[in-house]
Write a structure and sequence with these properties.
By secondary structure, the chain is an alpha/beta fold. It folds into 2 domains: 155 residues, HAD superfamily/HAD-like (Rossmann fold, 3-Layer(aba) Sandwich); 66 residues, Orthogonal Bundle (DNA polymerase, domain 1), CATH 1.10.150. It contains 8 helices and 8 strands. A 6-stranded parallel sheet has the order 5-4-1-6-7-8, sandwiched between helices. Strands 2-3 form a two-stranded antiparallel sheet. It starts with 17 loop residues before the first helix and ends in a 12-residue tail after the last strand.
Length: 243
C-alpha cells in the first residue's frame, strides 16, 4: 500500500468539542499510541463469536450466559472470563484456550476497519508523528490484523500481550512500548483508546490520554478518571498534529 499525503486544515474540524480544540492548540504530540479493538477496528463479531463458541462447547445453559458480552471487547481476555463467568485463574486459562480454537481460525478475520481510520493514520504518519499499536490483544493476532489491514508500514512499534497472558495490562504495555522506542514518559506521548483501561494505563504511565467515543466504551466510564481529550470520530484525531 502506498500512502499519499492528505491535505487537511483545522477549519475542517468544527465538530471537535471546544474543550478539546483548545487543548489540541496548546499541546504538541509526537508519539501516538493506538489501541486496536474499538479504536482502529470494529472487532465485535470475531470476539463475540469466539465467546459464544466457548459457551456452546462447555454447554453453559442459556439462562447462565451473560446478557451483555461487549465487556469482552478491550480488557485482557482472561480478566473478562474471570469477571463475567466467575472463573478461577485456572478455569480462565482453559476458557482462553477454547476461545482461541475459534478465534485462531476465523475470529481474528471477523472485523472491519472503522471508516476514516486509514486516511487518518496516513495523515498523522505523513505529518511526522510516530505511531505505535498498544493493545491487550495477543501480539501474535494483532500483527496478523495489522498486516491484513495494510497498516504494517505505519507503525513504529506493535505491542500486545503474550499468548500466555503476560504483559496484558495497559500500563505494562505502555511502558514496554516506551522502552522499545527508547522514550521516557512524557505528555507529548498520548494513548488513544475507547475504554477506561486505556486512560488508567496512560495516567499510571505518565503520558497523555484520549478517549474515542465511537468504539465500545461509554463516556460515563471515564467519569472517575477523565482523559485529556475526547474524540467523537476518527477524523478528529488529525487535530493531534499541527500544520
Amino acid at each position: 500500500m502506498i500512502y499519499q499525503p492528505l491535505k487537511f486544515t483545522f477549519a475542517a474540524l468544527l465538530t471537535v468539542e471546544e474543550e478539546n480544540y483548545n487543548t489540541f492548540n496548546y499541546m504538541h504530540y509526537t508519539h501516538l499510541f493506538f489501541d486496536l479493538d474499538g479504536t482502529l477496528i470494529d472487532s465485535k463479531a470475531g470476539i463475540l463469536n469466539s465467546v459464544k463458541y466457548f459457551m456452546d462447547k462447555t454447554n453453559i445453559p442459556e439462562n447462565e450466559r451473560p446478557e451483555d458480552l461487549n465487556p469482552f471487547i478491550g480488557p485482557p481476555l482472561r480478566d473478562s472470563f474471570r469477571l463475567l463467568f466467575g472463573l478461577s485463574a485456572d478455569e480462565a486459562e482453559d476458557a482462553t484456550k477454547i476461545y482461541r480454537e475459534y478465534y485462531s481460525k476465523s475470529g481474528f478475520k471477523e472485523y472491519q476497519v472503522y471508516p476514516g481510520i486509514e486516511e487518518t493514520l496516513t495523515f498523522l504518519k505523513n505529518s511526522g508523528c510516530s505511531l505505535s499499536l498498544v493493545t491487550s490483544k495477543a501480539e501474535f493476532y494483532a500483527r496478523m490484523i495489522v498486516k491484513a489491514s495494510g497498516f504494517s508500514g505505519l507503525f513504529d512499534a506493535i505491542s500486545g500481550c503474550m499468548l500466555n497472558g503476560e504483559r496484558s495490562k495497559k500500563h505494562d504495555l505502555i511502558l514496554y512500548t516506551l522502552d522499545q522506542l527508547k522514550l521516557k514518559p512524557s505528555k507529548s506521548v498520548i494513548m488513544i483508546g475507547d475504554r477506561y483501561l486505556d486512560v488508567e494505563g496512560a495516567h499510571a504511565s505518565g503520558i497523555s490520554s484520549a478517549a474515542v467515543l465511537y468504539g465500545y466504551g461509554d463516556r460515563s466510564e471515564f467519569d472517575h478518571l477523565p482523559p485529556d481529550l475526547f474524540v467523537n470520530k476518527p477524523e478528529e484525531l488529525r487535530c493531534l498534529v499541527k500544520e
